[in-house]
Write a structure and sequence with these properties.
The protein is globular. The chain has 2 domains: 138 residues, Ferritin; 148 residues, Ferritin. Helix 1 runs antiparallel to helix 2 and helix 8 runs antiparallel to helix 9. By secondary structure, it is mainly α. The protein has 10 helices and no strands. It comes from Halobacillus dabanensis. This is DUF3231 family protein. Pfam families: DUF3231 (PF11553).
Length: 338
């Protein structure tokens, strides 16, 4: 059977739907960023990304149409206002793009593991490569601009060591002195700080321009959660005498006119919270100090509650597009339409 004629499995339809939502959003966001950018390097990165992301959307649409699947609405020109001034500067545009490429790299790799059809597997393979290339290019741009500090330096170990006391897990040495963090723990803490610096800037900008009062308050809450995470994780590093490098993370303008719909900004925020929950869970699983997962669990609860309330807000205002549903067999048996 021709690959295009093979039925789409439920997991494949789910991942294609998610990818379509995210990518149509990114097409609209980067189109606006592109129109407001001034730095030639930033313009080139945004232009290349925008054009390739549009092709990705077309590829998804083609597979859905071949499978006689209704095309999602996603995000359109109606979600962007190009007549207003920029909300962020060029440095933040690329910082944002780097963060979203980081999310896409993991997301598409996960989606590949939920796929069976060869053409869809190839699609996610290409998506992953594209996301990785975008991450590399945006990282190099920010490094060359001197606005992307690397994670803390460490003295290379000269020999291999094994944990000998159970206090290693508790975070204390035999004399009651707290064990310094290992590089795995530092890596995940720093990742959390870096992501939340970018996220805090985004929430600050969104809070300036959101139209609905409830949505504006929601973004302010998100900004404060990001601040708390940055402070909590930074203190963990400082307790081990590790100084957290500062970064500008780009600049927010004084604009109060929204370039994006509240719907788009809420959806973008939901992507970040999902990424934050996943990263936090991964960091917790790799930590060998029992005190760190406890602190991360508190952070995770705050983020989870924030994400849940965001979903409720999107439903309240009619912004939550439903993913494809499985058949309701009970309703069908009773002669009802699903």
């Amino acid at each position: 059977m021709d690959t295009a004629r093979k039925p789409i499995a439920s997991s494949e339809l789910a991942t294609l739907w998610i990818a379509y939502q995210k990518k149509t959003m990114m097409v609209q966001v980067t189109k606006h960023f592109l129109a407001k950018s001034q730095d030639p390097g930033a313009i080139k990165l945004l232009q290349d990304f925008h054009e390739e992301e549009k092709r990705c959307v077309d590829d998804i649409k083609q597979i859905l149409e071949q499978g006689s699947v209704a095309i999602p609405i996603g995000f359109t020109e109606n979600d962007v206002n190009h007549d207003v001034g920029p909300l962020f500067d060029d440095i933040y545009h690329i910082s944002y793009l780097r963060m979203m490429a980081k999310i896409a790299t993991g997301l598409h790799a996960l989606h590949m593991t939920m796929t069976y059809r060869k053409d869809i597997l190839e699609l996610y393979k290409n998506f992953t490569v594209f996301a990785e290339e975008t991450y590399i290019k945006t990282s190099q741009y920010l490094l060359e601009k001197g606005v992307l500090p690397k994670s803390p330096a460490v003295t290379p170990p000269k020999q291999v060591e094994f944990a000998k006391e159970k206090d290693y897990r508790a975070g204390f040495k035999p004399m009651g002195q707290r064990r310094s963090l290992n590089t795995i723990e530092v890596a995940y803490l720093y990742q959390g700080i870096e992501a939340n610096i970018t996220g805090m800037k985004l929430m600050t900008g969104f809070s300036q321009v959101a139209q609905e009062r409830e949505v504006k308050d929601y973004f302010i809450r998100g900004k404060n959660i990001s601040k708390d995470i940055i402070n909590t994780f930074s203190k963990m590093l400082l307790d081990s005498d590790i100084v957290v490098p500062a970064t500008s993370g780009g600049r927010i303008t004084d604009s109060t006119m929204s370039p994006f719909s509240d719907k788009l900004m809420m959806y973008n925020t939901s992507i970040l919270t999902s990424f934050g929950l996943g990263s936090n869970a991964l960091g917790t699983s790799f930590s060998l100090r029992k005190d760190l997962p406890l602190k991360m669990a508190k952070v995770a609860k705050n983020v989870y509650d924030f994400a849940t309330d965001g979903g409720d807000l999107m439903i309240k205002y009619g912004w939550a597009e439903e993913p494809p549903q499985m058949e309701d067999r009970t309703a069908l048996a009773e002669g009802e339409k699903t």
